[in-house]
């Protein structure tokens, strides 16, 4: 059984703002390890938006890890579901390279805070495992510690993006106008999701084949 890690973060922005900013997280000064991101699938079903993306990341390989890993770059599959009815954004990520050396599976649920409806809580869970005989437990411990540090950088980076998009601490748009949440009905949000899916479909089809092929290499 692998190692488990969980953390919870409160973003002082409403749920709609956090969801909108989620697609604009990169680049930011705290996520230099994220090299690229490509949408390979997007579809609206009912009031839910399903998306699959491929991210390329890199991390410094420790000296002892060089015997197992020849290239610090690794592909990451990110699958997400935006649920408008329940106001949740759930993401699942996993690495698609060097999985026998170290596999990292992450789940994050973004939801409206119970304490403040204008804030968003992100509950992050991570599982780290390894199949390297003799190094399994050491690699798991290393992976959890790196995961913890990356979580801290993620929070800094996400808050950086949110502060740029909503400079008045989550109360205004980029043009300075005040956001009135009551104006955004479920139907309006659904139409926006459909429009986003339509714009992404051609891009997904054109990029899916070569991207996945490169991961298999």
From TrEMBL:
InterPro entries on file: PRELI/MSF1_dom (IPR006797), Slowmo/Ups (IPR037365)
Annotated Gene Ontology cellular component terms: mitochondrial intermembrane space
Pfam families for the chain: PRELI (PF04707)
Taxonomic lineage from the root: Eukaryota, Metazoa, Ecdysozoa, Arthropoda, Hexapoda
Annotated PRELI/MSF1 domain residues: 2-170
Highest taxon in the source lineage: Eukaryota
Stretches the record annotates as Disordered: 182-203
This protein's name: Protein preli-like
Biased composition (Basic and acidic residues): 182-201
């Amino acid at each position: 059984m692998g190692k488990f890690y969980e953390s919870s973060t409160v973003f002082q922005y409403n749920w709609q703002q956090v969801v909108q900013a989620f697609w604009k997280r990169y680049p930011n000064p705290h996520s230099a390890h994220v090299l690229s991101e490509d949408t390979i699938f997007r579809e609206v079903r009912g009031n839910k938006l399903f998306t699959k993306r491929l991210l390329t990341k890199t991390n410094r390989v420790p000296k002892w890890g060089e015997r197992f890993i020849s290239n610090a770059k690794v592909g990451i599959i990110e699958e997400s579901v935006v649920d408008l009815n329940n106001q949740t954004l759930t993401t699942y990520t996993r690495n698609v390279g060097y999985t026998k050396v170290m596999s990292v599976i992450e789940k994050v649920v973004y939801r409206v805070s119970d304490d403040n409806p204008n804030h968003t809580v992100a509950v992050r869970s991570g599982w780290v495992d390894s199949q390297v005989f003799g190094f399994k437990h050491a690699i798991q411990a290393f992976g959890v510690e790196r995961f913890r540090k990356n979580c801290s950088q993620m929070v800094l980076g996400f808050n950086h993006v949110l502060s740029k998009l909503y400079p008045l601490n989550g109360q205004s748009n980029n043009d300075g106008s005040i956001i009135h949440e009551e104006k955004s009905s479920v139907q309006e949000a659904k139409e926006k999701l459909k429009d986003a899916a339509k714009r992404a479909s051609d891009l997904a089809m054109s990029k899916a084949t070569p991207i996945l092929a490169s991961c298999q290499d």
